[in-house]
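Reminder to self: tokens first, then the designed residues, so the page reads top to bottom the way the pipeline ran.
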């Protein structure tokens, strides 16, 4: 049964009341709210998007189980509390490895690749806690290379800096190839959840890392799902993700907006001003993922709350 397009309707499933949004089926709503059993999501990797759409709202699960309290995963003061049905179930694991390579993606953006002794399981949009030998813990969002590549036992990060020495303030020591590290994860609340309405993705600076992982996975898992992507940076030269955006356009994503605060060397397709000024009008059934500094996340959260949309943040550590 599908809800009327003019108004919400109320249902009772397994003794629990449901409010079905316009355009959603009662099955989709029951899956989303955890009233009936969910299925396990997956991250697709390969040469192109899957040929068919997987069942809507395929992954909802129980509460997160963490071995120790994790400040990076905590809900910010004033944020809307998440129900158990909206919290992903996963087990935090620990891995060891080493820095494999550090390359420049833009004048002030670096890509750091770490090779682990064993694969670490996580979902697109999840975060991990990385501790370099002799350094301090840093919470980062694993991603893919801008061209889309990554090995199963690799972790790829996008970080701000002109050279490896610039990352010393972030990690407590400068990363160099061969340097040992420890990784704990997954942590955080920003993981990709298949199913639902339009997927609105907002990325500030190197916050594109987690958003790129979500966007690429969504094109494989749900090729028919509408995606709206907004990416911004202070300097247009820091918009390093154009190869990724070209791939998304080739797979059918047409709503892509680039924004930059500074006008210097701004390409014609880059809009002026902060990225939050270019977020489209949100809908009640939108699913919003945003990654960036606390001020950016706060602004996006306000917009999502005003529209009644679901909001999942991927916070950036200062300096990342």
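Designed residues (320 positions):
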């Amino acid at each position: 049964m599908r809800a009327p397009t003019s108004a919400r309707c109320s249902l009772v499933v397994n003794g629990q009341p449901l409010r079905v949004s316009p355009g959603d089926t009662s099955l989709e709503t029951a899956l989303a709210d955890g009233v009936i059993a969910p299925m396990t999501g997956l991250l697709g990797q390969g040469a192109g998007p899957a040929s068919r759409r997987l069942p809507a709202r395929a992954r909802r699960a129980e509460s997160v189980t963490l071995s120790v309290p994790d400040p990076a995963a905590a809900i910010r003061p004033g944020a809307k509390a998440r129900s158990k049905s909206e919290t992903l179930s996963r087990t935090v694991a620990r891995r060891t490895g080493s820095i494999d390579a550090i390359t420049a993606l833009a004048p002030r953006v670096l890509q750091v690749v770490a090779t682990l002794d064993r694969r670490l399981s996580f979902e697109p949009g999840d975060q991990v806690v990385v501790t370099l030998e002799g350094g301090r813990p840093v919470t980062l969002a694993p991603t893919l290379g801008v061209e889309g590549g990554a090995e199963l036992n690799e972790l790829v990060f996008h970080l701000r800096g002109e050279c490896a020495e610039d990352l010393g303030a972030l990690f407590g020591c400068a990363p160099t190839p061969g340097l040992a590290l420890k990784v704990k994860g997954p942590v955080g609340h920003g993981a990709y959840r298949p199913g639902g309405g339009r997927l609105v993705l907002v990325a500030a600076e190197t916050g594109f890392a987690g958003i790129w992982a979500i966007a690429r996975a969504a094109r494989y898992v749900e090729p028919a799902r509408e995606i709206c992507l907004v990416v911004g940076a202070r300097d247009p030269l820091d918009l390093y993700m154009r190869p990724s955006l070209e791939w998304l356009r080739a797979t059918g994503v047409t709503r892509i907006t680039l924004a930059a605060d500074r006008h210097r060397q701004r390409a014609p397709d880059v809009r002026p001003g902060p990225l939050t000024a270019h977020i489209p009008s949100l809908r009640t059934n939108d699913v919003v993922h945003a990654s960036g500094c606390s001020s950016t996340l706060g602004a996006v959260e306000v917009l999502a709350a005003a529209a009644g949309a679901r909001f999942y943040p991927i916070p950036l550590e200062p300096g990342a």
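The helical segments are 26-32, 168-171, 208-221, 242-250, 294-307.
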